[in-house]
Amino acid sequence: MRIRPVLLTLALASDLLVDAFLINPPSRQSNSALLPRRRKKKPPKASADGWAKYFHEPSGTSLSNHYDSRYEHGILSYEEKQDSQVHMMRAYLDFFKKNNIETWLAHGTLLGWWWNGKMLPWDWDIDTQVSGPTLMFLGKHFNGSIYEYSSADSDPDLQPVIERQYLLDVNPAMIERDRGNGDNVIDARWIDIRNGLYIDVTGLSETEPLDQPGVWSCKNYHHYRTTDLYPMRETMYEGVVAKVPYAYDRILAEEYQEKALVVTEYEGHKWHPDIKEWIKKTPDEIKQERLSRQQARRKKQEEKAQRKKAKEEKEKAEQEAKEKGEAVPDEGKKDEKEEDHSVDQGIKEPEKEPIKMKRNAEPDPDPESDPEPELMKESSGLAHLRHRQLVHNV
């Protein structure tokens, strides 16, 4: 009999929280006319098991997970995806700059910036981060906002000018700053309402300020120190002004290992340093590489079979010598060990020289030693290291 009053209290508290954080700013255009395909859905309710999942993706292939189910109507082509992502990112950064709200690049998006100030062409995920207070501010004042975008690099005299609309949708469960049941690790999304592609926005908060002061965490177990994040560096990303964490090199190395900063072939793409671009391999190139790998594998198997056969023949000869009472020379075994050692040394992959980079544990004491214009000029982490004349293998 006592359960019902408790449930009513929880429901009332949840409604109050939703009203507090999910309001549209006054004097904004109604979203109903702009979102004819948007499905009405009630905000999730808090329960003893945690918040119900708010954002949903279509089921099916792995690529379907990168679309919001309310606006998805099919998988985009490689070229369509790239075009959508570039303009979606530019619109996102433009919106935050116009409203004087801080956001920065994260995860694979930050890794793309490291290489050439652009997105990794094979990456379907776009990730950004904001602070916890900024997340609350977005939920209260901008949730449900529709942003009207016109391409900044479009010539107004040319037609058609690129004009698109993007939705900022803030998850009501963002008020909970721990992982919970794991259904709401994404706090907000910036969604292209034409096709459902989106940018994941996650908040960072000091969830344990007493036990771990200065440690910022998201709901997906990524942790950062204050000195890793601030002061933020202003740079360029996809042709527009953006921000990256201060110790971007440390963050990338910890999240992806340093090999992600030096490997020049990945996901069917190859890095071309002359033009500073990741270029997708042609079908003929992929086929040729597959044949080369098969040939190398076959050669290695043949060499292994030959060594095994030679070893068996030698063991057989030694056994026959023992049966006849003949002495077995030690030199043969010694030569065999040396041969095996030389073969092993020959097939061992050469060790790569580790990347040498400065670890920014603390901000530079002299601001002039690391001025922001350096990054602004080069517009990528890789170029920044080159500017500082640090060694890297690329």
TrEMBL record:
UniProt keyword annotations, A-Z: Membrane, Signal, Transmembrane, Transmembrane helix
Chain segments carrying region Disordered: 288-394
Bias kind Acidic residues: ranges: 363-373
GO terms under biological process: glycoprotein metabolic process
Pfam families in UniProt: LicD
Signal peptide: 1-20
GO cellular component annotations of the record: membrane
Membrane topology: Single-pass membrane protein
Compartment annotation: Membrane
Chief location of this protein within or outside the cell: membrane
InterPro entries noted in UniProt: FKTN/MNN4/W02B3.4-1, LicD/FKTN/FKRP_NTP_transf
Biased composition (Basic residues): 384-394
PANTHER family: FUKUTIN-RELATED, RIBITOL-5-PHOSPHATE TRANSFERASE FKTN
Protein known as: LicD/FKTN/FKRP nucleotidyltransferase domain-containing protein
Protein source organism: Alectoria fallacina
High-level lineage: Eukaryota, Fungi, Dikarya, Ascomycota, Pezizomycotina
